[in-house]
Amino acid sequence: MFTDLPEEQLRGYRSTVPEPEGFDAFWRGSIAVARERAVAPRLTEVDTGLTAIRTWDVEFSGWNGQPIRAWLRAPAHAEGPLPAVVHYVGYGGGRGSALDELAYSAAGYAHLLMDTRGQGSGWSEGATPDDFGTGPQAPGVMTRGIGSIETYYYGRFFTDAVMAVDAARSLDLVDGERIAVHGGSQGGAAALAAGALADDVRAVVARVPFLCDIPRAITITDAKPFHEIVEYLAVHRGEIASVLHVLSHIDGVHFASRITAPLLVTAALMDAVVPPSGPFAAFNASPSSAKDLLLHPYNGHEGGGPEDTAAALAFLARHLGSEGTRA
Amino acid sequence: MFTDLPEEQLRGYRSTVPEPEGFDAFWRGSIAVARERAVAPRLTEVDTGLTAIRTWDVEFSGWNGQPIRAWLRAPAHAEGPLPAVVHYVGYGGGRGSALDELAYSAAGYAHLLMDTRGQGSGWSEGATPDDFGTGPQAPGVMTRGIGSIETYYYGRFFTDAVMAVDAARSLDLVDGERIAVHGGSQGGAAALAAGALADDVRAVVARVPFLCDIPRAITITDAKPFHEIVEYLAVHRGEIASVLHVLSHIDGVHFASRITAPLLVTAALMDAVVPPSGPFAAFNASPSSAKDLLLHPYNGHEGGGPEDTAAALAFLARHLGSEGTRA
Amino acid sequence: MFTDLPEEQLRGYRSTVPEPEGFDAFWRGSIAVARERAVAPRLTEVDTGLTAIRTWDVEFSGWNGQPIRAWLRAPAHAEGPLPAVVHYVGYGGGRGSALDELAYSAAGYAHLLMDTRGQGSGWSEGATPDDFGTGPQAPGVMTRGIGSIETYYYGRFFTDAVMAVDAARSLDLVDGERIAVHGGSQGGAAALAAGALADDVRAVVARVPFLCDIPRAITITDAKPFHEIVEYLAVHRGEIASVLHVLSHIDGVHFASRITAPLLVTAALMDAVVPPSGPFAAFNASPSSAKDLLLHPYNGHEGGGPEDTAAALAFLARHLGSEGTRA
Amino acid sequence: MFTDLPEEQLRGYRSTVPEPEGFDAFWRGSIAVARERAVAPRLTEVDTGLTAIRTWDVEFSGWNGQPIRAWLRAPAHAEGPLPAVVHYVGYGGGRGSALDELAYSAAGYAHLLMDTRGQGSGWSEGATPDDFGTGPQAPGVMTRGIGSIETYYYGRFFTDAVMAVDAARSLDLVDGERIAVHGGSQGGAAALAAGALADDVRAVVARVPFLCDIPRAITITDAKPFHEIVEYLAVHRGEIASVLHVLSHIDGVHFASRITAPLLVTAALMDAVVPPSGPFAAFNASPSSAKDLLLHPYNGHEGGGPEDTAAALAFLARHLGSEGTRA
Amino acid sequence: MFTDLPEEQLRGYRSTVPEPEGFDAFWRGSIAVARERAVAPRLTEVDTGLTAIRTWDVEFSGWNGQPIRAWLRAPAHAEGPLPAVVHYVGYGGGRGSALDELAYSAAGYAHLLMDTRGQGSGWSEGATPDDFGTGPQAPGVMTRGIGSIETYYYGRFFTDAVMAVDAARSLDLVDGERIAVHGGSQGGAAALAAGALADDVRAVVARVPFLCDIPRAITITDAKPFHEIVEYLAVHRGEIASVLHVLSHIDGVHFASRITAPLLVTAALMDAVVPPSGPFAAFNASPSSAKDLLLHPYNGHEGGGPEDTAAALAFLARHLGSEGTRA
Amino acid sequence: MFTDLPEEQLRGYRSTVPEPEGFDAFWRGSIAVARERAVAPRLTEVDTGLTAIRTWDVEFSGWNGQPIRAWLRAPAHAEGPLPAVVHYVGYGGGRGSALDELAYSAAGYAHLLMDTRGQGSGWSEGATPDDFGTGPQAPGVMTRGIGSIETYYYGRFFTDAVMAVDAARSLDLVDGERIAVHGGSQGGAAALAAGALADDVRAVVARVPFLCDIPRAITITDAKPFHEIVEYLAVHRGEIASVLHVLSHIDGVHFASRITAPLLVTAALMDAVVPPSGPFAAFNASPSSAKDLLLHPYNGHEGGGPEDTAAALAFLARHLGSEGTRA
Fold first, then answer.
1. ipTM of this model?
2. CB E236, CB E243: distance < 8 Å
3. Active-site residue (options: B15, B30, B185, B277)
4. Which residue in D118, D133, D138 is closest to E129 by CB distance?
5. Structural domains in chain A plus CATH codes
């Protein structure tokens, strides 16, 4: 069933989540520290059994200079520098197997798929620790370190996402003028963050993006991971205002309001995990003059699935100037 | 939790499902009719946006000559003829998107992924009808036409699977001496069937294969799709013997007992959809002298996931003589 | 809990589902072909152990002349011709046992209970095949052949329902001037269809009728069988418009708008399987000058259960002129 | 899935539940008091709209003389005295609608369907109070008054069941030499009790009988109503021995061991509500020389459904000498 | 997710449940009879192993003089007479263990925790029978004796609650001028009832109080125990008006409208068991000039848990003049 | 239903989990480091509104000297030094409210209830961070840092538990010769660890202790938190051996084998969260000459609830020489 407002109301829906004072300063600071401590990415080519695609195990510098793993893949027969797609993944997963998610490299891109710190144990494997302690928390990472934005998990994770763009740009294989960010669900949230905070991103693809318009979302669904916040607040009743304040620093609506690059958002009217008002609120907040919204009326959180991938490839080809290229 | 016998008993487990009289004659007949009515596959190249992989929309002749759809993919830079992998998919799905399941073609194979007649509406899209009526049936295809083996769905589907090997062999791109069959769950059942019934299959990969040792399986799990048979028998109480007789014609144990090619079976001890005694029973029935069983103690029906893919690629490389090839 | 609009809004609720062009022509055509190919019903009396009710196993000509099974029952001591009730059953069931549903014959009617093609394996047994292939479909019959109205399951099933009235009328036992149609859920949908399309139906009883105002229903419930349509559209994202167009040919609202005979509709405010806006939309669409709506505020899909049966018997007695008859 | 021991072990399964001292004395006493306080049944004919079956609303004297309601139905055209079936119903229901359960009267029997005291609000309506207080209890009646056998609900209910046979025998319509008892689940338990305790019962039909071999049953299923006992004991940890002692007075195994009349028991291997070891234990305990067990391997608690009804009618016809009668 | 109206609408929400004629007369009568038949409470000190708290097993006279059990606890080192808290518990439980709920006596009160008649088998143990029969009912006590207010369970239970205040006042240990009532869920409903009906109650604490604005509540949640009423009405379709009439005698809104003592109500916006419109309707109905509402936006039926206890202790200290006392 | 072996087999059940080399050395080392970095506990008295019990907010030095919070409570009127109970809590909770768990201080003990690092957000609130990063992990703490015993969460948590005994002993209020450890579920596991590793513990109460005989437990239940390990291994298929090796360092069976103090274990035959073979394996492994096992046949993971508390108080009184003391 439909999980949110009627489509006609969604079309004009605007979030009222307040932007916290110091939003830009916080992120500028976090990125500055990370860049200061960054070292050049380390690449190790791996034998995956694939002959048409080359694969490297990557370690680059993320938040506070901490090492983050990734897969870099590129068509075996392509000549660089190539346009690049920096890719973030959904909640609970990691960079997974080097045999998954082959479409982007097969489509001719340098494809950097970032691992997710301290997750990677739910539906796909990860290899990156979250090297930071935590206060009392509900299971999952939604409330890890939620006592302050300085200790909050998503401060680290979104900084990693920005640093992944830096890392991609530093590679010989990559044409630094043609970098896009892409992801679904939590990965879509990261794409919005990197689209707002990283330098010179040329296209942003946020599929059913999580973590947008959070104060509303947590009151209209009981599905996890949004519900982890509710579980925490149900016990820590005295922290409601401070938790919402921390969350306002990572709300996708505020990132979207800073995205001027071409933006593709997808949403689904039967999505109970990410009710569509969040993606619409982000989309409507963006000042981008080249933004598309792809809506799936009868889908849940899978959104458009492979059709979103196809739409993303077409959108990327158009905005990274890679249309018609055949490696 | 573990869903079946302890591992040490599974290692030696043998099914007692009786082989029906006329088993070979039935399949010989069905394949003979299909071959008589077969026409050459029709290939239409499609633009998927991928540059490293070429893709064709295929229509080949299946059961009774009926048209079956498939995707054929191959590395863009490879010179044929190539070793080939014929691939069957799990219950409820279809051939899906041309952007999915890229590993086999990226690994240098001609990869023919067969659509599933009359399914393709659950988790991936299909385009092939099941052009045959049905008697009273429970939802799903497990009991479609179960009144006799002549009308039973899996008689048609497994004949399609065999004809897919014929179709692959007929292609210029394919080296007919180096064809393997591969699939998971229902697709694993089809791989066993084709491994037994098709001509000159050089390797068989059956991942968590469904439809093995059926009489036991339907009494030890309540999970669908096995449970569809129980739902049917719960209403059609007078048909128990005839339904079990029909099912004995399509039991993977009997196919496995005819497989002499190299065989890779995977199984998982926490699989409630396909309890592991079925895959073990099939594995133990096969006279193949080059058979491997890959067991995952803490997995459910996902089995080894990408690790099974990696194992399959290694197994195929070894047995199709494609090790070390780099397109 | 209440599953739909407040009662006061339901009272005036009107569907906006558009009537497709060619609606009447399609059904006229389908019925004409069926009548052309029809043969006289075959009746075989069976010994059920009942002494007060006689029972015949019936085979009559349905869609395209295909044989449809039914039970005919009548009071053992009655002298014909009798008023008749043609009865259709709910989703997943069949004509069931000859020992079930005895109230109508015990009430003095010739009672023809039609089997449902290709179902009859869920909660009651059926014996009638659906002799027609299918395209890709979700489990269940909601999407069987949904590629076009010509191939769609409910085109066949509703034509069977009309032909059942013809078959009843042709029997010596039946007074052809006094035939009613009756059913619940899917059977209620069939009663609306037959009430609109069959000749000279004298009363229509549609209990919690399914398949009314379909475009709304599929967005306000996650319950099956409506949800089968959503499952299909979630995968076949490109077919939304065509699927809704096909469904508009079988929407109970359009049948109801053609029913001028006395009409009894029942509905329940806590019905999550058939949200009450559908039955209300059908009821409100009917131009009948003798229509009753029986509403159950605290019931789910069971509706009024035996109280609906009692209401149906009273309604039938009034409109078939059988009040006070005692066989 | 199978819910209990393998069939071959069930065939010989014997309960070890101990018979409490004073078992016979308790029941003799309870029945003696009830008979002392009994008055003649009151019958009021009701107009149900049925013409082939006559129906009376009955009130007879049950436990301690308390009034118990029932439906009496008989074929309209039959001449009495008729053989009779006294019928008890399942947990949570009542005598229901006079339009339900017509098969027994339509088959030529005087059919007395007893209401269940203090239930009748779950799936069918009842009209009989349980005129007795209760100690602390879990929801449902399984633990109502379980502090002693004198206050326990099933002491009253089973005495009602015995008195229903007395009431039937006292009717002019009934041939007192040809009375059977019949029921399913809780009703099957009552049939066993009445078969053991009532005078001169000529046949006993206990379909998937509940409340047999209780100490085992409550440890092998989490399904209600058996689980109500576990819920009670989980809180009243100090009453385990006394509760099991009370329950041993109403265990169907002890009733069965006293049944010498022809006995039909049905059971289902996938029954999670009444695991089949209970029905088998009862069946195996009975010294009857004319006992049949009808086993449904792929059914749950519905057992054989209408096929059990057909089997019951055939069994009753054989043992009540009513074969071939046609009213 | 939020389970009811938005907070701003709840703030002004008023119930429209009509007050039945004779409301006051009924309760006056029931209490008068109980007082007439009352005897002095019997106290037996028990050894619980606690050294700081003394504990007595109490039996006092409730409805119709029937004996009701309770725990009385008081600080071991306190000198009486003490202010007292009369405490009622939630659905399904009883007075539980003498080791639970120690906060009130540890805070210096004489704490009388009343057992609940005929419950006490769900989450905590009880020892008090409900010495009264029942008509047909759904499992649980919500519909026990619901045929009339004279026989309805909550008529007895709320009279017990009033008599508990009388009992407390009669004790030497208690300062009869300083008695409060307190409870959560069903216990909160009882606190409202006693707050309205008992003499001279000095403070009322109703935490997430159940049984307020019943006609609305039963249509907006499927959670038990409210749903027990729906289950009953789904079967007893003809009793809707009479059942709602009976329930109007025990609706917390009518009790609240009679409470002039200081009143603390708590509610939770995600409470699906007691949707917050009920507690708000009660709160808004009270003419008390010293009323507080404590709202928990992210909690379910646990409400504020220990924070509600802390708030209750502070509220009681303020209104019973016990602030700052240290035993 | 029973969730594990029959009671008679449990009585003699022995775990086969191997003790890892270096078990004692690891724990000796971890405790030595913690002691080296420990500072004296800081106590701050808080006003809880309770008059019979005094309460202090405590911070003591745990693993690696990190600050751990706790509640210390004692009877207001007692003269120290008192015997002490160090208490650990179940999975997901924290030290909770100072108004909960009053029985131990009310019974005359100094009661130190330790907060749980990085949990305290599930069912009770905590205030202690887990000041250590994590590798990839499944939600919850079961796999936090599971890459090695040095980084594993339970290495830290159990060291905290040992240090809590040191902290208690250092208090003036406490008689260091009379200290017991106590907990349920995860808290029971901690009690076993502290009972084995802390100095001079005089009694150990482990109620339904979690984390015993882990390799078996994770294969016989799907309930969390044991299932978190399975979720991790389902993705990290290559780490099975190393994860089981890490877990062998924290298995309660090895702690129990080192407990010679009086030991009380409780278990429940219907416990699906902690199947009873774990508690039995621990109990059977202990060489204590004064050990009791309290078994609840009809309970789940709640075990004996308040009856286990009463049993614990009696056991503590007996073994801490505090019988008959009344403060």
1. 0.95
2. yes
3. B185
4. D133
5. 7-319 (3.40.50.1820)
